[in-house]
Structure formats: structure tokens, C-alpha cells
Amino acid sequence: MKNSLHVKLLLKITQEYVNSHFTFVFSLLFSLLFLAYSYNFSTQSWRPIVLIFFVIYAITTAYVGFLTLRIKQDLANHNDIRKSTRLLGYPLLLTIVSGNIFSTSFAFLLMSKSKTAEYIFAAYAFITQLFIIGISALNLFKPYVTDTFLLAMGLFLFLAIFYIVMLILCTKFVTSEAAPKWMLFPGILLLIASLTGNLFATLLGYSLIQKARKSNPSTIEKWQRIWEKILRNTMAVFGLFFIVFMFSLSVTSSWTFDYDFAIENNYGALLQTPSLEYPLGTDNYGRDLFSRIVFGAQISLIVGLFSTIIPALIGGTLGAFSGYYGKATDNIIMRSLDILYAIPGILLAIAIIAAFGANTINLIIALSVGAIPTYARTMRANVMQLSNFEFVESARALGASDAAIIFKHIVPNSLAPMIVKATLTIGGAVISTSSLSFLGLGIEPHIPEWGNILKVGSTYLETHSYVAIFPGLCIMLLVLSFNFLGDGLRDALDPKSN
Asked: What is the C-alpha to C-alpha distance for residues 251 and 126, in angstroms, rounded to an integer?
């Protein structure tokens, strides 16, 4: 009985075993979706390319199922995963060609026994880079490419090799507590490489620099614990991957995608079905849907991020003053915000856009104004709780000014709930952006934005459904990713869960 409970506990906490179940379920789901889409009922014929993807995903599902059983046997018989089982993870790396992020991440997880946060960052930086290369390479089937295409692709390939090297170095030399001093230089190079938008490279570079410098061990240990908790949450990691991938694609798309395909009308290619030249088809003006969705990610992310950061800063500052000073100050600030809070956010946004016009800046302002009260309430509650703590009384007794107490002592200790809230509400901002654009009150109609694309596609749901399905999927996946990441951050930053 005791041995059975021990095995159950091992299965529950072993990251490889948990991740294998996610990989199996998602691979099975996608294989069924490919099977359903492989037959064209209108022409009563099979789609060969989609059928090939079904076969690949079906084989992957069966292989992952075999590995899951093998991992379970190893844990039951040896209390650990054997080296021979870990070697079986290498063939799964080939599934990156089919875009199966779940099986590829599982392969990296299974291959290495020592999995530091830096190893995971390096693995996902490499996977993200390969996805960027694969998406950008589809432009080769276009009639022409941008002037910087070959140079950018060469840079992407170099970065992919660099991330592989860093993956190997992290496996051999980096521990959960420290890194060799010579890793400082690769860390700086990683921060430079993160200019391509690959935020996993940023996290890896910053972490290596901190460990190589051996500065403030307590801070390193604290962030290491937080990242370990986040990285154990499979859905949070996949959410973070999709966000980083879309952000990196938005940054690099200007070097590899031609903007003309996204905005110029091509009446010789109206409503084309997906093909190699038009991977996601074309709309009713002959514009390449693939290019429009890629460039539309820039606007969705920019509006979503800024319409979250601005109210977080303004609302957080107002909430901090309100919670710290209390009484008259609290009444003036909070009652004013209550009036603003009483107005539905979407109606307030519509009113602002109707008054000042539909453009990106006005859309950010419109979405920001309505979100200020919620951030102010969150910060106020945290500040009121922390204001009575001993470290605040000590700072006050030592003669620190009110501003220093608020912004140096109280606010830094109140940031965790604000970060979680901001992550969870970015998804709402993305939905609001697309909703207003769908109603014709957001981004200008000719600009590629997911809401605009979805509005065009809604007219052709019965005849050319892909024009609406693809932007709808992008909106759904981005919102889900932010929600999954927010849940992971909430679990990692919550002191009660430690």
C-alpha cells in the first residue's frame, strides 16, 4: 500500500509524465482535426497535404502513448526515468517539422535529466526561432520577397544554431544555483539577440548574467523558485510560448514579409482557397490573408499591451495614494473613480472613438480610460494592507518621506497582484480591440487587424469560411495564452501556495 502511494506521488509530480499526457491529448486532438479536414465534401475528394499531416500526428500520438507507458513503468520499477527511455525522446524532435510544439517541448523535457530554468528558456528560444524560420520561409512561394529577406533568414538560422549551442552549454555548466563566470559574455549576446523579439532569449540572457555575476543570491533563489513553479505549469508555458512567438513574428515580419500583399488589392486572386502561394487563402479584394494576419498581430499586441500598461500605471499610482493617505484623499480619488467605473467600458470606448475618430492612438486611450478604476482598486487594497506592516513603520521612524515609503517600500511589495491582473486583462483588451474593429469603431478598415479581417470574413462564412476561421483562431489562441500565463503567474506569485 505504501509503495503504491509512493508510485502515485511520483507520477503526479514528475514533470515528464505530466507533460506526456498533455502531449498525447493535444496530438490526438489535432490528428482528429486533420482527419476531419482531409476530405473535401464539396468536391468529394481528399486533400493530400492535410492527409499527410494526419498521418504524422497519428504516428506521433501513438509514439507519445508508448513513451508515457514506458515512463510510468520506469517510475514504478526504478523511481526514476532510465537513460534508455530519455534517449527515445530524440526522435520526437523531428515533429517540429509538422509544427507540433507539444511533442517537441516534451522531447526537450525528456532528453535532459537536469532541467534548470535556463535549459527550458534555451529550448523554447530555439523552438520559437524554428517556427519563425518556418513561417517566414513560406514567402518563398510568393512572386517576390522583400529586399531584406535573405539577410534576415541568414540571421534567423544563425540565431537558431546559437540557441542550440546555449542549450548544450546550459545542460553541462549551469545549475539551479550558479553559472560559470565566462557565461557572462553569452548572456550579453542573448540580450542583443532578443532584439528580434524572442523574449525567451531575454529571460535566458538575464538569468545567465545574474548567475554568472553571483549578485544577490537571495534574489536569484527567489526568482528561480518562481520560474520553476511557472515552468511546471504546462499550459502556462504553452501560453507564454504562443505570446512570445506572436511577438517575435510581429517584430521580424517587417524584414521577411512584404506589406503590399496585406494591403494592395489583387482582383486576379479573389477569394482563393489556401495554397502554397496563399497559405491561408485570400479575401474578397484578393489580399493575402496570411500576410494580413501576420501584420495584424502587431496591432493586436501593441493595443493590448499599451491599453494594459497605461491604466496599470495611472490606476496603480492613484490606488497607492488613496490607500496610503486614506480619509479625505481616499474619498476624493475613489469616489471619482466610482463614477468612471459606473460607465460600461465598451460604451465609454465607443463614445471616445466616436468623438475623436477611429485610429490606433484613440483606441488605446479609449480602452485605457475604462480600465483605470479596476487597477486602482487592486493597488489600494494591497497598499492599505501593507501600510500597517512593521517595515513601513520603521521607514517612517527613520524619517523617510511619504513618496519614498510608497514607491520604494510599499509599491514594490504590491506588484505581484498587479502583474497577475495585467496579464489576465491583456486578453480582454485584445478582444475589445477586435470587437471595436469588427463594429467599424476601431482600427481603420483598410489596415490589417484581426477584427477587421474577421469582419470581412463574416460575410463569407457559408462559402469561404476560412476567411473568418483563421483570424478568429488567432484571437482565441492569443486570449487563451494570456489567460493561461496569468493563471500560472498567479499560482507562482501567491504566497499562500509556497
From this structure: 17
